[in-house]
Write a sequence for this structure.
């Protein structure tokens, strides 16, 4: 809320002023009626101050203009303050999310996170722009009227106020009951959001399995749940509404009966009673508002809790206080020392030891789920290791400033994620200052020449996640994206699996003739991809089982040899 | 149509017309009875509340001056009754309307969602998903109130207005004209503001949609952002979108709030003029012109009462203009043409044996460049076909056409002699098992994900499918086995593992025609070999189309088709094609690592 406080305080001030001003026009009006129209009887002659009519009317019109001007200004200030607040909270939340670790993204569904930045924040906006204003407005009115009543007749006022504690008790009870309902409602909204979001993202699978009816039924259920929760919370309010409303309205009955008796007994004049009865609404209105405001407030609490949770969620992977950075390009030396990684109780990587010199190429092979991707994700510190040390340029990765470390690493992940941007924008994702020629150069290196054949060339907009492109095409764009940042360490995680063989040969050639030095980690299934590496690492259940060059591993006649034979079945092995 | 990006506003082609309102009426009609009843309740409540002032007046004028305590108490009793009646009626109305408004929301949302399920791939491919999402959830929520309570309140206020108008006319027709003189001014202001407001709220919805789109993508692509250190730049983009939204909102607020303000001012002017005119007309001997002190005071209070409903109507109107911006978008999505749909009178495809034939198939994605031209081939039930060829040659397109994900531009695709464009989509696709290039994982347990292929599969069936594709091993090593929670985005499944899961899912659906599009690209060679052996039995009696780059996968197929140049250039068994020494031969030899 910082920066918008002045705005807000000013708005609050205007609220007080404008609700005070609300009382002025009726006074002018009664003046007109009393003095000009009805006139005053002086010595049996009715005197009407007709000459005062025009000034009075002008005063009334002018005053209304002023009052509405003030209240317009007030509304704008409230909106400014609330928009400003959610603007900065939203920015902060977005920023905070950007830095969360993989753990966070494993746990939270996209739809839920989206709910927090949209629906929940809207509730905050509503609170600032509306609830607070109304709360203040009501209190000012209530207090002002109470004071006015007190000056007239203390006992009468106290009789009127007798009901206030009851209203408080009832609204409190209501708040307590409705609170959990709103938490539930919010949760269901989030589920609805998640369900719709996944349905949209997975639309291809839905169609492929002709599961539209199933999806509709599932969504209907979520939609129904949301509907029911909505009805439940509204009904809860309606259960309490009669009591609150009844109490508030009983004020006019009290005024009539008690006031009437007081007049009969001579405690009050009939004029006083008229004044009271015309003002009872200023007392009863705040009372009935209290209920609905508390209703909204409970809703706000449900949302605020979710926002706060995200606001204060901290990534476990952050810069250390003694983090080091370096401006110069990394050499690209990578060393694993006794590295182990455990998730929960499962050890997924065990005791990895190896050193890669700058400029070397390391190929990593192994069966599905053996930990290849995890192993390479440790280099840019996507996960923190449980044991051992990973050194990049002889500095442990957790001592490097994250940004500095990651800037020097280019990754093409297995699960290719492209953004709904132009091809050009996607390739230049890591360095948006990249010139058009450079984008083309890297696209050429990654054999993404198919882009030229697309209708808008490099300006073609790629659908979200790269839909509309074939697997191989996506992979090549992702590769160009990784190459474009000219990283000292290049990690290619199964980047060419969907690329045809001729193209792959071409890519290998360009990788070998990059115009910058780069240590390369390549995970792959095809021998043709891995055979020319300086070092081949075979992972099995998180352990290194074989390590060496192509020839060394063939001679070993282990896993690598087996794969080699499988892939070259029927072809004589001549080199060994 | 050009693809939409997160920072491009979606233009709305159709201008707003009464058509939208008529359409909304469909949803309201269902609840006509309840709404009329609710309206009656409200009207009764209003009438009951009109008794209150009469009671007060009676007390002030007679009971109290006369010191009649019993009558006073009696009047108090009457007041309690009317208040109670009022509250009961209002509560009943609200209870009814809560259900109505929620049910309208539900209906609109389900219709929208059902329509979305029918929309073709292109629809999803052509816009950021966040923009679709925002319509289904937020927008629908936003229109609920105006379509239920809004309508009732509108009718009530109109009644109110007519009621007071009659009272005024009875009191003084001349002064009524004075009160009504304010209306044209108000209408002019409304008329000037309307287009501004409408555009402003459309902008709000646009900017909201843009922000949502970017947000959605940012969450999905968070990992890439991190490894490319793009956080700051993304922050900048998001900040821009966020600010645009704020700006659009404030703009809408500026113009929207002018309306109540102008109503208040106009009503004061009217009151002022009323007093002046009234005093002028008030003859010294009051009765000659018919304007008396009483008339003026009465008209004064009527005038304020007359403008109150107008003020309320103006607020309703504001909400209405706001909701219309969302309603337009919802209907726009519902009007999105379903390009691939059952033809009228489509028959159900009977259980197939799996013959597939393409006859003169011509296909183009955009209507200009043909991807396939005059393609002809025939596959007998039970055969396994490998499709090979350069990336982008149309292998995926061919298999997509078998499932009728797209309509042909020419020719026919026949399954067991049935033209697939003439059978229902559901009967067609439910007999095929399609494994797509990207294996989408829904959030839920692994078992649930596999069961997506056959919703009522037993645990044994699920396990058997996993064993066939060799996925049981890694699933069992996970902490919670089949009950391990996974999600679409971040879960720790590797690409290969995801492929195995979606493979198991496909097998479980027990398809007659199996389509594997790069299904095993990320699976290691050894697992793949084991998997192949398991598959061999399973593939018996099923037609299969396999797209792969790994030759070991291809070689075992009955027939290999080389796709390039808008059609199939080579077709035959591995040995035949090798002997031919053409494209396939070149491809094959290039992969050999020696």
């Amino acid at each position: 809320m910082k920066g918008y406080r002045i705005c807000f305080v000013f708005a609050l001030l205007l609220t007080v002023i404008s609700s005070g001003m609300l009382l002025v026009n009726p006074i002018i009006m009664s003046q007109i009626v009393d003095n000009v129209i009805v006139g005053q009887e002086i010595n049996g002659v009715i005197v009407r101050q007709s000459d005062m009519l025009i000034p009075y009317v002008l005063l009334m019109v002018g005053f209304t203009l002023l009052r509405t001007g003030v209240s317009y200004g007030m509304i704008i200030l409230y909106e400014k303050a609330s928009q400003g607040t959610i603007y900065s909270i939203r920015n902060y939340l977005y920023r905070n999310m950007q830095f969360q670790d993989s753990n966070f993204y494993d746990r939270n569904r996209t739809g839920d996170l989206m709910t927090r930045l949209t629906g929940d924040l809207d509730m905050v906006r509503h609170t600032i722009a509306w609830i607070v204003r109304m709360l203040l407005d009501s209190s000012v009115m209530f207090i002002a009227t109470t004071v006015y009543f007190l000056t007239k007749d203390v006992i009468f006022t106290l009789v009127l106020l007798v009901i206030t504690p009851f209203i408080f008790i009832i609204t409190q009870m209501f708040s307590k009951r409705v609170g959990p309902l709103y938490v539930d409602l919010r949760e269901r909204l989030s589920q609805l959001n998640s369900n719709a979001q996944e349905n949209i993202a997975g639309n291809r699978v839905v169609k492929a399995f002709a599961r539209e009816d199933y999806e509709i039924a599932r969504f209907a259920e979520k939609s129904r749940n949301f509907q029911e929760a909505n009805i439940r919370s509204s009904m809860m309010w309606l259960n309490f509404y009669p009591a609150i409303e009844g109490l508030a309205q009983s004020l006019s009955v009290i005024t009539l009966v008690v006031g009437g008796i007081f007049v009969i007994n001579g405690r009050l004049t009939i004029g006083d009673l008229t004044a009271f009865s015309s003002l009872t609404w200023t007392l009863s209105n705040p009372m009935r508002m209290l209920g609905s405001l508390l209703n909204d407030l409970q809703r706000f609490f449900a949302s605020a809790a979710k926002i706060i949770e995200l606001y204060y969620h901290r990534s476990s992977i952050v810069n250390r206080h003694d983090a080091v950075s370096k401006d110069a390009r990394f050499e690209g030396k990578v060393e694993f020392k006794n590295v182990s990684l455990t998730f929960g109780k499962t050890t997924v990587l065990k005791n990895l030891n190896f050193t890669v010199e700058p400029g070397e190429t390391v190929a990593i092979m192994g069966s599905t789920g053996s930990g290849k991707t995890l192993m390479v994700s440790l280099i840019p510190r996507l996960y923190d290791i449980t044991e051992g040390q990973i050194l990049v340029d002889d500095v442990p990765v957790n001592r490097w400033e994250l940004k500095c470390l990651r800037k020097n690493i280019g990754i093409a992940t297995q699960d290719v994620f492209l953004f709904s941007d132009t091809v050009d924008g996607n390739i230049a994702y890591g360095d948006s200052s990249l010139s058009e020629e450079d984008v083309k150069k890297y696209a050429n290196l990654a054999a993404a020449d198919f882009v030229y054949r697309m209708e808008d060339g490099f300006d073609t907009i790629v659908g979200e996640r790269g839909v509309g492109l074939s697997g191989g095409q996506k992979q090549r764009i992702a590769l160009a994206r990784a190459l474009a940042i000219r990283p000292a360490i290049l990690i290619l995680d199964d980047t060419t699996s969907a690329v045809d063989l001729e193209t792959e040969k071409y890519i290998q050639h360009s990788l070998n003739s990059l115009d910058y030095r780069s240590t390369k980690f390549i995970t792959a299934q095809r021998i043709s991809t891995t055979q020319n590496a300086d070092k081949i690492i075979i992972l099995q259940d998180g352990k290194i089982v074989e390590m060496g060059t192509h020839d060394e591993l063939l001679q070993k006649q282990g896993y690598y040899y087996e794969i080699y034979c499988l892939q070259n079945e029927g072809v004589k092995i001549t080199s060994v | 149509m050009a693809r939409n990006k997160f920072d491009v506003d979606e233009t709305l082609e159709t201008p707003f017309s009464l058509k939208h309102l008529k359409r909304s009426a469909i949803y309201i009609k269902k609840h006509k009875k309840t709404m009329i009843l609710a309206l009656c309740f409200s009207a009764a409540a209003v009438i009951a509340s009109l008794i209150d002032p009469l009671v007060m007046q009676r007390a002030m004028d007679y009971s109290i001056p006369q010191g009649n305590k019993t009558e006073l108490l009696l009047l108090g009793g009457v007041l309690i009754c009317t208040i109670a009646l009022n509250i009961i009626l209002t509560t009943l109305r609200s209870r009814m309307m809560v259900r109505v408004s929620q049910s309208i929301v539900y209906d609109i949302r389900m219709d929208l969602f059902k329509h979305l399920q029918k929309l073709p791939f292109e629809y999803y491919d052509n816009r950021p998903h966040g923009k679709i999402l925002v319509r289904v959830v937020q927008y629908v929520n936003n229109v609920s109130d105006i379509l239920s309570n809004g309508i009732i309140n509108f009718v009530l206020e109109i009644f109110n207005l007519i009621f007071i108008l009659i009272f005024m006319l009875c009191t003084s027709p001349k002064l009524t004209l004075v009160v009504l003189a304010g209306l044209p001014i108000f209408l002019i202001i409304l008329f000037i503001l309307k287009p501004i407001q409408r555009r402003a709220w459309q902008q709000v919805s646009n900017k909201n949609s843009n922000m949502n789109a970017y947000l959605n993508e940012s969450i999905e692509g968070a990992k890439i952002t991190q490894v490319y250190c793009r956080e700051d730049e993304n922050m900048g983009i998001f900040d821009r979108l966020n600010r645009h939204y704020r700006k659009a909102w404030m703009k809408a607020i500026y113009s929207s709030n002018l309306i109540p303000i102008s109503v208040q001012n106009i009503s004061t002017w009217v009151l002022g003029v009323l007093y002046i005119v009234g005093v002028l007309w008030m003859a010294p001997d009051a009765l000659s012109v018919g304007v008396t002190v009483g008339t003026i005071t009465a008209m004064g209070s009527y005038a304020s009462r007359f403008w109150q409903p107008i003020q309320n109507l103006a607020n309703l109107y504001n909400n209405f203009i706001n909701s219309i911006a969302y309603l337009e978008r919802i209907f726009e999505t519902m009007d999105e043409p379903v390009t691939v749909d059952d033809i009228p009178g489509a028959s159900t495809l009977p259980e197939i044996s799996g013959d597939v034939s393409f006859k003169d198939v011509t296909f183009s994605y955009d209507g200009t460049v043909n991807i396939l031209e005059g393609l002809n081939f025939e596959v007998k039930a039970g055969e396994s076909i490998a499709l090979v060829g350069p990336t982008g040659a149309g292998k995926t397109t061919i298999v997509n056409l078998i499932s009728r994900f797209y309509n042909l531009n020419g020719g026919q695709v026949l399954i067991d002699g049935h033209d697939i464009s003439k059978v229902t989509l559901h009967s067609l696709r439910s007999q095929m098992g399609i494994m797509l290039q990207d294996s989408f994982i829904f959030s839920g347990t692994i078992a649930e994900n596999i069961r997506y292929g056959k919703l009522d599969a037993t645990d044994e069936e699920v396990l058997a499918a996993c064993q066939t594709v060799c996925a049981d091993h890694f699933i069992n090593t996970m902490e919670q086995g089949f009950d391990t929670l996974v999600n679409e985005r971040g879960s720790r499944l590797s690409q290969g593992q995801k492929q195995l899961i979606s493979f198991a899912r496909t097998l479980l659906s027990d398809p007659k025609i199996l389509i594997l599009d790069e299904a095993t690209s990320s699976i290691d060679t050894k697992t793949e070999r084991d998997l192949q052996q398991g598959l061999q039995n399973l593939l018996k009696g099923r037609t299969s189309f396999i797209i792969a780059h790994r030759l070991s996968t291809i070689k075992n197929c009955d027939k290999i088709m080389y796709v390039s140049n808008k059609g199939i250039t080579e077709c035959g068994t591995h040995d035949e094609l090798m002997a031919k020494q053409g494209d396939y031969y070149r491809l094959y030899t290039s992969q050999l690592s020696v």
Notes: Chain A has a mean pLDDT of 86. The longest strand of chain A covers residues 346-356.
